[in-house]
Recover the amino acids of this structure.
């Protein structure tokens, strides 16, 4: 059997409720009237990506609709789309720049190039020095020999003129005595005629 129990005044717990405070005037600092916080950058990026995906999907649907309306142009539309994708791919690679491996390779090649240029400068200096040293042994040497030969021929012609009368009086032909004179006969005659 259940016993019913009546609540007595002693059983009732009285809780004091705080007196209502005066309502503070609404201010901009009040969270109810504050502007919503700006979305975090990650949230904004995610929304931007979703928007780009929607734009991409819209373009795909428009293409499909155009192909459905004009099946004869399907191949042309797909070819143009593929070509545009190729350009986009190249542009994205350009925007990425060099990979880490390519950057290291570039730095290595730049160092090698700088070293090779320094060596080339040294070699150019050595070449200039060798050409300067070789000059007296080349055309300058030939010119010096030509001058010496001309001088020797002039001396020979002077001696022939000086002794020509004596040799002729003795009945001697100098070319029979010195056969090498016949090789220079034309030059000797030209120098004698001066």
């Amino acid at each position: 059997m259940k016993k019913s129990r009546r609540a007595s005044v002693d059983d009732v717990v009285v809780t004091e409720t705080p007196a209502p405070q005066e309502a503070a005037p609404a201010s901009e600092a009040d969270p109810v009237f504050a502007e919503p916080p700006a979305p975090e950058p990650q949230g904004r990026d995610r929304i931007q990506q979703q928007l780009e995906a929607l734009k991409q999907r819209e373009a795909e649907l428009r293409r499909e609709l155009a192909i459905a309306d004009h099946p004869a142009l399907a191949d042309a539309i797909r070819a143009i789309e593929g070509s545009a994708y190729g350009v986009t791919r190249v542009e994205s690679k350009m925007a990425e720049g060099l990979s880490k491996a390519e950057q290291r390779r570039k730095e290595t090649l730049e160092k090698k190039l700088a070293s090779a240029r320094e060596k080339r400068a040294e070699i150019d200096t050595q070449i200039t020095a060798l050409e300067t040293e070789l000059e007296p042994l080349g055309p300058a040497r030939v010119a010096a020999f030509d001058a010496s030969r001309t001088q020797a021929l002039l001396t020979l012609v002077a001696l022939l003129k000086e002794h020509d009368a004596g040799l002729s009086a003795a009945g001697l032909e100098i070319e029979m005595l010195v056969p090498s004179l016949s090789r220079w006969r034309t030059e000797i005659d030209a120098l004698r005629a001066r």
Observations:
- Helices lie at 41-69, 74-96, 100-134, 139-170, 174-177, 185-192.
- Residues 27 and 33 are 7 Å apart (CA to CA).
- The longest helix spans residues 100-134.
- Residues 7-28 have pLDDT under 50 and may be disordered.
